[in-house]
Specification:
alpha/beta, Udp-n-acetylmuramoylalanyl-d-glutamate--2,6- Diaminopimelate Ligase, Chain: A, domain 1, five-stranded mixed β-sheet, 43% helix
């Protein structure tokens, strides 16, 4: 499944989508950035409420397929521009992290 297909099925809004055809292989959720860097795997969907520039840096280092920001939190403009430039797909959802992970588990 691609990140675009997943986002559509979740009803998530694209914040930036530079690589919409990237494949999804698993999911990781967490908000402690150092923890995510060491545990998220390449091509995972990363579900978080973190919305600053460091989120983009961690997504790049972990090579996740996309970031889904839960609880309706919004990525700031500078971070969104950096995500676009770095090729990081970012989506936003009003759902909780738990609800997103449960839905992702059902889909992949």
């Amino acid at each position: 499944m691609t990140v675009r297909e997943l986002a559509q099925k979740l009803g998530a809004r694209a914040v930036c989508e530079p690589e919409p055809d990237r494949q999804v292989c698993g999911c990781y959720t967490g908000d402690l950035l150092s923890w995510v860097m060491g545990r998220a795997q390449a091509d995972n969907v990363w579900v978080t409420i973190m919305t600053n520039i460091n989120t983009v840096a961690v997504a790049t280092l972990a090579d996740v397929s996309c970031v889904v920001i839960a609880e309706g939190a919004e990525l700031d403009e500078a971070a969104a521009k950096t995500a676009e430039a770095k090729g990081v797909n970012v989506y936003s959802s009003p759902l909780s992290s738990y609800s997103l992970c449960a839905a992702i588990s059902d889909l992949i």
